[in-house]
Every structure is written in C-alpha cells, then in structure tokens.
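Comment thread on ticket #2218

A.B. wrote:
> Attaching the input chain for the structure job we discussed in standup.
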Amino acid sequence: MPHAIWTGAINFGLVTIPVKLFTAVRTNELSFNMLHKKDMGRIKYERLCSIDNKPVPWDEIVKGYEYEKGEYVTLTDEDFKRVNPEATQSVDIVEFVDLGLINPMYFDKPYYLEPDKKGRHAYALLREALVTTGKVAVARVVIRTKEYIAALKPNGDALVLELMHWADEIVAQDTLDFPKAEKMPPQEMKMAKMLIDTMTVEKFEPEAFENKYHDELLAMIEARSKGKELPKAKTSKPRATVVNLMDVLQASLDETKKHREASGTRKKTPTTRRKRTAA
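C.D. wrote:
> Ran it. Output below, let me know if you need it in another format.
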C-alpha cells in the first residue's frame, strides 16, 4: 500500500474535504556509488574548513547566507522556526481559473489527493464541478515546513494537486534570443503541416515509449555482474548539414511515410478533445 506523506483537508469555501496526499510520480534513475578503483572501497567525503583545511564536526557547523562577497549572516534553527509557515494541514483554494490560462511551465510536481470516507461525496462533487466548468483550483498548501502555490486538477476519478513554481522562479524569455514571429513561405508551411499531419496519432500512449537508456544500462550491469561479454558501443551517423529546408522537409515526409508502411501502422485522425482535464 502507498504511504501517505501528508494528511489534511481541502478547503472549498466553507466545505471541508478530508484527504491524504500521495506521491503521483516516481523516478527510475539508477544510483551509483563512488569507489576506489584500486580496492573497491567506498569514497567518503569530509567537511573541511576552507580557512584551516581541517575537518569540522557537525556540532560546529552553522548555516550562513552570503549577502555580499565573503560576508555572511548566520541563522540558527530557531531563526528558521520563526519564519516557517503555519502548518495548517489544508489545501486552501484561493481562486479558480481556466487551465489554458496557466503557462504549463509553472507546473512542477503532481500528487494524488485521496478522500477520507466521510469526504467522498464532497470530493466527487468538486471533481465533477471542475470537469464540467473546465476550471482548475489555485490553492495554497504547506507541506512539511514549506509553503507552495498549487493547482487542483481533475484526472479521471482522481483530484491531483500539482505543485507550482512561484512567478519569480520562471526565467523571463526576453533574457534569451528567440526568432520573432514572421510570415512563413507558403510552400514551407504546407510541407511542415503535411509532416505534422503524417506524424499525428489518435491517442497519446506514454507506455509505448520505452526508457531505452535505463533498460540498456541495467542489462549491461547484469551482464557485467555475471562476467558476460558486453555488446559493442553504438555509433550513430552524424546528420547532414541543412542546406535547403524544403529538401529536408520532403526527405522527412518520405522517411515518415516509409516507416509507417514498414511498421504496418496507418495514419490516425485526431479525436475530439476529452471532457476531463488531464493532470
């Protein structure tokens, strides 16, 4: 059984819906240790002082913020407690907004909200109201000792709480150099649309995408652990330099059609948009 990382309630006006918070995503990254090649000993890291170059025990370490070069303000655990947000154990809905009005870059990490038995009807009511109106709820929530802004979104039978970035955490686009909107040559635009149309599928199926690097790395580790011979490293041919965009678009279109014919797949037409909002 999954373990709830937080227990509280959704506050929707004067309605309170008891819920539990569960992790909705997990990473499959492999963990490696740093070893001494000579004897396979684990590498340890010491906390060294930059001034006397001597090891420092934990009880002599304090947290400091560098406000000027080489100048620090130190803070104690009590200082952090003074500014910690109040752990209200609630998802406080502040406002509702159309999902399309929120830049996807603000979304960070999703969590499932599971209702308590007493709150199942109110939970379902809020979920269906969001589905019907096409809205998401914007809320404030404190998890552990940190406050977040979050979006409450329907996803199938579930309500998902997706933590969001604060506005000042998003890097402004005008700090980088992007091409401005311009009128595209009609023939290039036609070819680009044809390529998109050829590659369009009826339904996005994430399970069809394999994490090849992860699987091949695991296979290599297993082979090495059994003393088996490892496969030769793959080499990929460098792509030709783009000379004429129309030629490249046409070649891409031909290659896509050839791939679909070889794999026996047919071009699929897009379906109508679903009513439920995906997380």
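A.B. wrote:
> Thanks. Noting for the ticket: Residues 269-279 have pLDDT under 50 and may be disordered.
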